Amino acid sequence: MKNLILPFMIMFPIIGYCQYNLNFSQRINTLEIINPGYNASKKNLSATFMTHFKKLDDNFYVGGHLLNLNVPIPKWNIGFGTNFFTESNEFDSKINLDLSTCVDVKITRNSSLGFGLMGGLESNEEEYNPYAQGQVFENRFNIHGGFGLNFASRDLELGAAVHYNQLSENIANQSEHYTLFLNGSYLFELDADLDLKPSVLYQYRNKTNVIDYGLSVTYEDCFTLGIYNRWDQSLILYFHLKVFPWMHFGYSAVLAINKDYLSDYGYVEIMVKFILPSKNRKGKYTLFGG
Asked: Which of 35, 86, 110, 128 yields a CA-CA distance of 20 to 30 A from 47?
């Protein structure tokens, strides 16, 4: 119980409202960016960098950057971290900075339940928008927060995260105060070297439902190929390579099924993740649970 008190004491004063709509195409495979409880079972310090490029009038431009940092304290079964991302499109831009904390509670020998809290600031700036009758919004800051749960076992993973919005009167395109995420996956071991993993990620925001679902195949825990559908809006092709035990590389490409949604999501996306080794009880450096 004492491990639950510390994170809540730290985060409670800054929990407020949340605006959270991450359009990264690899989010189904990097759940730490949307669920603050996901990193609770991870025992190594890690840093995840993501950049996506969007297409506008046959030209590519940088649509967003993201950094997720996880600093676990395995001795206390807690962790701390930060989430920083920027996104932009044709009419507006957004900068978001979160602080997070999580705690891992063992259920059985091979399963645990993670609890996480996050809170921070978001800056929004909307430029000239012809669909908003030429209105120009000044830069504004919102306080926000979120809560997440994540159950993790050897094969099964289930999670849920809720983010609450602080809505301003001059935000024309939002009418909901919260964003909801639900995630689930199951790992099938086809043989000693080959794994199959179906995954699903559900998002509810602003009276809109979005579902990412698909399959990935991993060979020798070294490289992964995946294909996902985003609610008949786009098809996501995914590639993940473990370059070194401490360095992972990911790449995804979005193929539009419905051309109306292409500008809303990452068209090409790159991910690099670093997992730093930790000392085991014998004083040797090892990688586990990253």
From this structure: 110
